[in-house]
Design a protein that fits this description.
The protein is 17% helix and 30% strand. By secondary structure, it is an alpha+beta fold.
Length: 105
C-alpha cells in the first residue's frame, strides 16, 4: 500500500490459458474410501502442473476435484468449467488403464 493511502493498490488482471490439460499420472482409489474415484496429477499448460488431486463423484451427480490440504486448509479451488474439463480428462485416462476384454467370436 502506498504511504498515506488507506486503499490497497489494485493488482493487474491477467487471463490464464489452459492449453494442455494432460493427465501425468492417475491411480484408481481402492474401494472403501468414500466417493473418491481416483487420485491424479495434471498439467494445465506448459507452465502449471498440479499434483495429488482427487476426483470424487457427487451424490447429486457430476464430479468434484480437490487439491491437497495444507495446515488444515485448501491449497486450491477450481471453477465449475475447469472441474468439468479436468474430470473428463481424468476419467478418460482412467478408462484407458482398464484392460479391454475381447468378445468371444
Amino acid at each position: 500500500m502506498p504511504v498515506g493511502s488507506s486503499q490497497p493498490t489494485p493488482q493487474p488482471n491477467f487471463q490464464l490459458e489452459i492449453t494442455t490439460l494432460q493427465i501425468l499420472r492417475i491411480t484408481p482409489e481402492p474401494p472403501g474410501n468414500g466417493n473418491v474415484i481416483a487420485r491424479f496429477d495434471i498439467a494445465l499448460n506448459d507452465d502449471i502442473r498440479l499434483f495429488g488431486l482427487r476426483i470424487t463423484e457427487r451424490t447429486a451427480g457430476g464430479y468434484s476435484i480437490y487439491g491437497p490440504n495444507a495446515h488444515g486448509g485448501r491449497t486450491v479451488t477450481f471453477s465449475y468449467n475447469l472441474v468439468d474439463q479436468m474430470a473428463r480428462a481424468a476419467l478418460a485416462a482412467l478408462e484407458e488403464q482398464k484392460p479391454h476384454v475381447k468378445a468371444a467370436a
